[in-house]
């Protein structure tokens, strides 16, 4: 009983401290305003006018003061960065005919790797613990025995994913192709000539003065890098919109060898893609869903270990694959710490920053053995979208940020239903939160993505209108089944 | 020219073979299983084959993608057939409904449909049906293989190889018709799969020791009929008016039992070739008239009956043989008992345990319309036939004709064909 009562008391102490520190200025201002108000009421209107006349305001003084005020406010509004609004986005839902059930995946694995039973065994253990479900999809070329990853098949997959997502975006937002000012495509591992952005411009007959960019090789965090590029461009170009396509084309990147560390991506990466419409037009403010508050990018590439931890290379037999080092989780943890250190001061309430600062000072000056204070990010955000890179990533982040099951639910369920869709997974997670009806006006969302390099990028969005359910999107036909319980190990 | 039955390799004139997997669109609940009945287990070494050929006008615009997508609609109804076999601790096989899928084979042929159909021995259609037996690893052996062959002119050959343990020929035709409706884009009102008893109604519950089934040496996990002799296949068309009726006194042309007559004639021919011992017992397999599909549409409900005569067959008349076929005894109950005994660890052969005649002529195979057009040709056979041989009789393109596929030991085939020529069944 005393434990419970002491923990309840502690909770109230914490709440009180938070209210005090976060609303410090307001609390200071209230007695001041109260005093002034009481004085004014006491003086009465006649006395007020007498005081004002005695100040001897001349017309010149008044004019200069007004000009100064107008000048300062103009400079302020002009130099304020343009707000970037997220009008809407759409996620690609692969057709059910591309579905890959576990048993089918394992059967293909056993048939293709029939001379390497240890590698097959490894893949099975990964799949059992992966957190993926039975409805994730691979492109048609990978359903062949052996897989048939031709360039034509890769282009077909790209067209299937990108065009479907874009058409859905056009329908949702009423956007006309000729109105697109900026086009950014990010696809890490498939970079044909002409580029995917050129493919889109050709298909939809976009304007000849469009600003198009194609980002490749930047890993799973490239989605937020695209948002960063779009934001910077929207500062320079007034009254414009930007379309971002985030996807990963699986067809050419299916690893055909039997090196274990390189077979891992085959088990986790699945088909997916998203199309996002950003705008800086004031007129879009009323129909936009979110506005971009912060975007922080941290790159650990200067450190050799971080640089080499996700490496595309050839194995002994000449098959190209992505080698994931064993230190991946540690490096991800350090990248996250670096990112948090930058984003913390921007988003955390004053109470948390004060606690973190005192703990930091305390550890430096008094006792280095004090446990470092991990700021409570749950006070800064209502929703979290952690890149669904794998079950281990989500577990690790849940632990280090001290998040509850509900906070990481969007990430886990996206991993279950769609697998690791690389840069677009953040958008599937956001769509999940909306589909569950949890997104309310003024909710803040934190999107965190990791990628090769090693990078950790995060974006903070604020919801500016409550999203009504049911939403249309990739979850529309299955949201009633979610959340599902995902066992630790699925027996195959 | 007969074609030897081979175990699935060597597709002859078909090249550029590509394999992929298709399955069911909706995930099956984990832990779902399907238990074969005793009769199913007795049939496990047999595989049913059917090949449908469609003209270029019908099939030129059908893409592989569309064909695969339509298969998903079919398998949504029969998702359990996309599972894989496993054994219980007692050794009894059962199907784990894990959505592993079926194998889809794509191939090309350098001949046109016309050139292909001009070959007199229709058993070349075996090349249109990709086949692999179940095993040696049960967990990675599909139960169904679908082959799509593109002819030079744009025509299409659709071949289905179907493990008999999941269902009989009538189930296969039902599934294929479902697929063609899906390809054509018709809305299909599939009945909800019934979870009721899959057993058949048998009027003969007291038959023990059925003779139409024979136990064979254990085959373990590779479900292939262990034959000492190599089997060969020969397929031809018969005209009822020209080749069948002359053998039977005319009592009204519409009432002649065409299948029984064909069976009788062939029985006699085989008896003449096999001097000692003659086949005095044969097996007749027909559709169960009491079986009302489509509830439980995929199952083994064919009537397996045995005919025994006590007179020398080679000298008998066709009428006598037809009459004795009328007294065939339904042995399914006995087969069910035997098949399920010892927890399915014993291995049996039904087709070819005795000389077997299968009557598929009641099925209108040409109703399998794609885009409104019937196939140009349909071929039926069974893989894994025992040494006594098999004759399959089915409908041909013209209603007054029948297709006949004969599978016999290689050594007997030429002599039996000679007998056929003597009877006028095939042209000299």
Low-confidence stretches of chain B: 1-10
CATH H level, superfamily name of the largest domain in chain A = Thiolase/Chalcone synthase
- Rg of chain A, Å, rounded: 27 Å
End-to-end span of chain A in angstroms? Answer: 46 Å
Q: How helical, in percent, are the residues of chain A?
A: 40-55%
Number of strands of chain A: 12
Ranges of chain A where pLDDT stays below 50 over 5 or more residues in a row are none
Provide the succession of SSEs of chain B.
Answer: EEEHEHHEEEHEEHEEHHEEHEHEEEEEH
Q: What strand line-up does the widest sheet of chain A have?
A: 4-3-5-6-1-7-12-11-10
Number of domains of chain A: 2
CATH class of the largest domain in chain A: Alpha Beta
Average pLDDT of chain B, to the nearest integer?
A: 86
Described by the principal axes of the CA atoms, the overall outline of chain A is globular
Q: What is the quaternary state of this protein?
A: heterodimer
Please state the structural category of chain A: alpha/beta
Kindly provide the radius of gyration of chain B, computed on alpha-carbon positions and rounded to a whole number of angstroms.
21 Å
Enzyme class (chain A): transferase
Domain FAE (chain A): 76-364
Protein name (chain A): 3-ketoacyl-CoA synthase
Family (chain A): Belongs to the thiolase-like superfamily. Chalcone/stilbene synthases family.
Walk me through the topology.
The complex is a heterodimer of chains A (492) and B (428).
Chain A: H1 2-22, H2 24-54, H3 59-79, E1 85-91, H4 102-112, H5 117-128, E2 144-145, H6 151-173, E3 182-187, H7 196-204, E4 211-215, H8 222-236, E5 241-248, H9 260-268, E6 272-279, E7 290-299, H10 304-308, E8 310-314, E9 320-324, H11 328-347, H12 350-366, E10 383-386, H13 391-400, H14 409-418, H15 425-435, E11 444-451, E12 455-463
Parallel strand pairs in A: 3-4, 3-5, 10-11
Antiparallel strand pairs in A: 1-6, 1-7, 5-6, 7-12, 8-9, 11-12
Helix pairs in contact in A: 4-5, 5-9, 6-7, 14-15
Chain B: E1 3-4, E2 14-22, E3 33-34, H1 38-42, E4 47-54, H2 56-59, H3 64-77, E5 84-87, E6 93-96, E7 102-109, H4 113-117, E8 144-150, E9 156-163, H5 169-184, E10 214-216, E11 231-239, H6 240-244, H7 258-273, E12 281-286, E13 303-308, H8 318-325, E14 329-330, H9 332-340, E15 347-349, E16 355-360, E17 377-383, E18 390-395, E19 401-409, H10 410-423
Parallel strand pairs in B: 7-8, 12-16, 16-18
Antiparallel strand pairs in B: 1-11, 2-7, 3-6, 4-9, 4-17, 5-6, 8-9, 10-15, 11-19, 12-13, 13-14, 18-19
């Amino acid at each position: 009983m005393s434990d419970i009562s002491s923990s309840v008391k502690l909770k109230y102490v914490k709440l009180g401290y938070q209210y005090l520190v976060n609303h410090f200025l307001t609390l200071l201002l209230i007695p001041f305003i109260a005093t002034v108000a009481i004085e004014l009421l006491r003086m009465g209107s006649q006395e007020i006018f007498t005081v004002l006349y005695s100040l001897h305001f001349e017309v010149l003084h008044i004019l200069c003061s007004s000009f100064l005020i107008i000048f300062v406010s103009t400079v302020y509004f002009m130099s304020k960065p343009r707000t970037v609004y997220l009008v809407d986005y759409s996620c690609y839902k692969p057709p059910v005919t591309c579905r890959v059930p576990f048993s089918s995946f394992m059967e293909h694995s056993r048939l293709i790797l029939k001379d390497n039973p240890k590698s097959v065994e490894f893949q099975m253990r990964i799949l059992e613990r992966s957190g993926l479900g039975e409805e994730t999809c691979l492109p048609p070329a990978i359903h062949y025995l052996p897989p048939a990853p031709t360039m034509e098949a890769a282009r077909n997959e790209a067209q299937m994913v990108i065009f479907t997502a874009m058409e859905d975006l056009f329908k949702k937002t009423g956007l006309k192709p000729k109105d697109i000012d900026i086009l950014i495509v990010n696809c890490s591992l498939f970079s044909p000539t002409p580029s995917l952005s050129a493919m889109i411009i050709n298909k939809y007959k976009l304007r000849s003065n469009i600003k198009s960019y194609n980002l490749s090789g930047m890993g799973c965090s490239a989605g937020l890098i695209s948002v960063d590029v779009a934001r910077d461009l929207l500062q320079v170009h007034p009254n414009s919109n930007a379309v971002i396509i985030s996807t990963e084309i699986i067809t050419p990147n299916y690893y055909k060898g039997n090196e274990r560390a390189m077979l891992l991506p085959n088990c986790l990466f699945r088909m997916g893609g998203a199309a996002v419409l950003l705008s800086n037009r004031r007129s879009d403010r009323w129909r936009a869903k979110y506005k971009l508050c912060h975007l922080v990018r941290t790159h650990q590439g200067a450190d050799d270990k971080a640089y080499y931890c996700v490496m595309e290379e050839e194995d002994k037999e000449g098959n190209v694959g992505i080698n994931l080092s064993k230190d991946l989780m540690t490096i991800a943890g350090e990248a996250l710490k670096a990112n948090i250190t930058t984003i913390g001061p921007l988003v955390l309430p004053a109470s948390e920053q004060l606690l973190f600062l005192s703990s930091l000072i305390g550890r430096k000056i008094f006792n280095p053995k004090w446990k470092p204070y991990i700021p409570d990010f749950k006070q800064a955000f209502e929703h979290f979208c952690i890149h669904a890179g794998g079950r281990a990533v989500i577990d690790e982040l849940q632990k280090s940020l001290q998040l509850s099951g509900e906070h990481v639910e969007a990430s886990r369920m996206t991993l279950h239903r769609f697998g690791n869709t690389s840069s677009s997974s953040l958008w599937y997670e956001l769509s999940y939160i909306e589909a569950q009806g949890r997104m309310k006006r003024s909710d803040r969302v934190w999107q965190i993505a990791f990628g090769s390099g090693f990078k950790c990028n995060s974006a903070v969005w604020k919801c500016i209108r409550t999203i009504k359910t049911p939403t249309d999107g990739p979850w529309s036909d299955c949201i009633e089944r979610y959340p599902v319980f995902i066992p630790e190990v699925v027996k195959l | 020219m007969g074609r030897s039955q081979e175990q699935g390799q060597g597709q002859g004139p078909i090249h550029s073979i590509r394999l992929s997997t298709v399955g069911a669109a909706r995930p099956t609940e984990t832990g779902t299983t399907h238990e074969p009945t005793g009769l199913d287990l007795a049939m496990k070494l047999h595989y049913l084959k059917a090949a449908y050929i469609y003209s270029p006008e019908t099939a030129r615009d059908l893409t592989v993608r569309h064909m695969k997508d339509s298969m998903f609609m079919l398998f949504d109804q029969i998702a359990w057939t996309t599972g894989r076999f496993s054994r219980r601790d007692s050794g009894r096989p059962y199907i784990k409904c894990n959505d592993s899928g079926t194998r889809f084979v794509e191939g090309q042929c350098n001949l046109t449909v016309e050139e292909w159909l001009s070959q007199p021995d229709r058993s070349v259609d075996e090349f249109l049906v990709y086949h692999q037996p179940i095993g040696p690893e049960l967990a990675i052996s599909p139960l169904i293989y679908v082959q799509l062959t593109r002819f030079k002119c744009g025509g299409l050959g659709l071949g289905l190889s179907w493990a008999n343990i999941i269902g009989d020929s009538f189930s296969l035709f039902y599934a294929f018709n479902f697929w063609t409706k899906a390809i054509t884009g018709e809305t299909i009102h599939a009945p909800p799969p019934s979870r009721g008893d899959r057993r058949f109604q048998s009027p003969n519950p007291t038959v023990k020791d059925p003779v139409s089934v024979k136990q064979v040496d254990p085959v373990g996990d590779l479900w292939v009929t262990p034959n000492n002799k190599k089997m060969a296949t020969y397929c031809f068309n018969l005209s009822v008016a020209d080749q069948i009726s002359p053998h039977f006194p005319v009592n009204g042309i519409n009432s002649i039992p065409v299948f029984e007559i064909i069976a009788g004639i062939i029985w006699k021919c085989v008896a003449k070739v096999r001097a000692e011992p003659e086949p005095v017992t044969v097996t007749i397999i027909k559709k169960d008239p009491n079986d009302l599909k489509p509830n439980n549409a995929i199952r083994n409900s064919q009537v397996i009956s045995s005919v025994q005569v006590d007179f020398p067959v080679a000298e008998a008349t066709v009428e006598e043989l037809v009459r004795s076929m009328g007294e065939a005894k339904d042995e399914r109950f006995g087969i069910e008992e035997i098949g399920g005994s010892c927890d399915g660890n014993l291995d049996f052969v039904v087709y070819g345990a005795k000389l077997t005649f299968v009557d598929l002529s009641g099925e209108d195979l040409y109703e399998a319309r794609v885009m409104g057009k019937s196939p140009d040709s349909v071929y039926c056979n069974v893989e894994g036939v025992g040494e006594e041989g098999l004759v399959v009789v089915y409908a041909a393109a013209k209603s007054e004709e029948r297709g006949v596929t004969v599978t016999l030991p290689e050594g007997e085939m030429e002599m039996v064909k000679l007998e056929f020529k003597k009877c006028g069944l095939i042209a000299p």
